Amino acid sequence: MNTPEQQAQFAKLPSVDRVLLDNAAAPLIESHGRKAVTAAIRNAIAELRTDLLAGTSVDISSDAVLSAAARSLAQSENLSLVSVYNLTGTVLHTNLGRAALPQEALDAVMTVAAGASNLEYDLTTGRRGERDDHIEAQITAITGAEAATVVNNNAAAVMLVLNTLGFGKGVAVSRGELVEIGGSFRVPDIMARSGCELIEVGTTNRTHLKDFRAALVKGAGMIMKVHTSNYVIEGFTAVVPEPELGKLAAEHDVPFVNDLGSGTLINLDDYGLPHEPTPMEALKAGADVVTFSGDKLLGGPQAGIIVGCKELVDKITANPMKRALRCDKMTMAALSSVLRLYDDPDRLAQRLPTLRWLTRSPQEISVNAEPVAAALRTICSGHADIEIIECQSQIGSGALPTRTVASIGIACTPPTTETSVGNWLAAFAAAFRKLPKPVIGRIHDDRFILDLRCLDDISDFIINLEHLELPQ
Predict the structure, then answer these.
(1) Top CATH class, 103-351
(2) What average pLDDT is seen over the chain?
(3) Which fold has domain 85-93+356-465?
């Protein structure tokens, strides 16, 4: 039960209508609308009531209520999804949005997003068109495939292919390829959801052609290969070469599907990077259908790309599930613009952000290191020791998990007087995440490290650092 003193305080609390009539409320109503301001005022008064019940001494004037409401409204306007600096050393970081789009793709997205477009309208005939028509010719020209289609991500591509070509059938997959990727996406689970029966062949480390042949003899209706993009099995191992799988599938008149996961449309060896299988190689090796991502090594928007022989791709496109998994106009515009960059391979590394960052030499990266380190030494004086270091970047998103690329970074080390290094590192990293444009680094060997591989404009970055509020 409330005390007489509390009852007296409650009686002094301003009403919602009274606060709304205050002249100071007019700018808030103009900016946010009466409904939002009314709700914010009501919440502010409720919080004051809670404080009074707790015995806390608080300002209960109309001005105090309006100030609290204004803070709440300002905070509610902050977008949850924001741009950040990726200085983790993982170029294609799944948690940070993977591939950054080139300017050409951003311009294309703005163009189609601003109004009506011919997404499913044939300007030549004046009749309904197909959205895949905007990108299919580009994909087939690059990959050499007979046909292609696109869905909203590679997980969807795999599921759609399985549901179309393997529904009600057994699908033979090597035990060593029953992967789980981010978000608990497991091949066995996807097969079950797609209406397929998983037939495991071989063992974790060794699978032979005879294992697949035995599965086909027992009635398997499809062979699937899954690129083990996020782990490597080494030692006493054996895998069946893809041409042999393709030939075996053809002999038994069943589809051979190859899921590349990340996928790249170029030979990374030409850029001094470790090799990653391409759709072109997979098709040449005998795959009937190949799936891969658009937002990883390809450097485009999130998408799942399906290429292969026309008969099978037509079946996949005709699946009713395709509509549920299709891409929107902005994705199609961005993907088409990125694919167009591949027509000019001589300039691809300069125009495609993902490839530009992956191919940067340590010497090039080091040019940015000293100015950034100098700024940090000033800002972090007395809080951390700042040192330019050699480090290793990784491609990310499941591509080449055991291979790294030499890079340059800045290590922030806690003072020798710091007693709890773990707490210091957590607080230090949190301070960088609270910057106007959050900076995401990584904690390694009791240091907070900023890998500079993906940092372009250091002038804006240094200005952003000036807002850093370090833990005391």
Answers:
(1) alpha beta
(2) 91
(3) Aspartate Aminotransferase, domain 1 (3.90.1150)
